[in-house]
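Attaching the record inline, Q. Sequence:
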Amino acid sequence: MVLVTFSEAFAGNVQKAIAEQLEQLPRKAIAAKALENSSAIVVHNREEALELINAYAPEHLILSVEDAENLGEEVVNAGSVFLGNYTPESVGDYASGTNHTLPTNGYARMYSGVSLDSFIKKITFQRLSREGLQNLGPAVEAMAEAEELMGHKQAVAIRLRDGG
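Structure, as predicted:
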């Protein structure tokens, strides 16, 4: 867990509340172990908070702020975002219908949670005209040559030389 806040006092209050909650849990040893790598980070402003959040790319992001919806619009890297004080992660896990299989370890920078799209086969198609190949060909040839894939380079060169 990483807490991002604008106030050291708030960070201290959260740490105190976590300690109190921990004592009430029947599996507090397991929860305490999970919290060992937690931290609270005090930032100066909204921009700094967003920069940190988007770089960290959390699996779960709870925005417990007054303008959660507006702030949420600026989040580009998170597995699932929980907006406002009445939206704990537990709701996403059990009842709100959002995805529970989310990218961990910062992979939200590149991936979304598992969804129906994850199980859909997608095929891409491309078609170039002679003019299109003439425009793209030199770049393709240079890249293929740089990778020492001369067959790829020749696939372009032959088509341009022989008219397709």
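The CA atoms of residues 78 and 108 lie 5 Å apart. Helices lie at 8-24, 28-35, 46-56, 68-72, 89-94, 130-146, 150-162.

More tomorrow.
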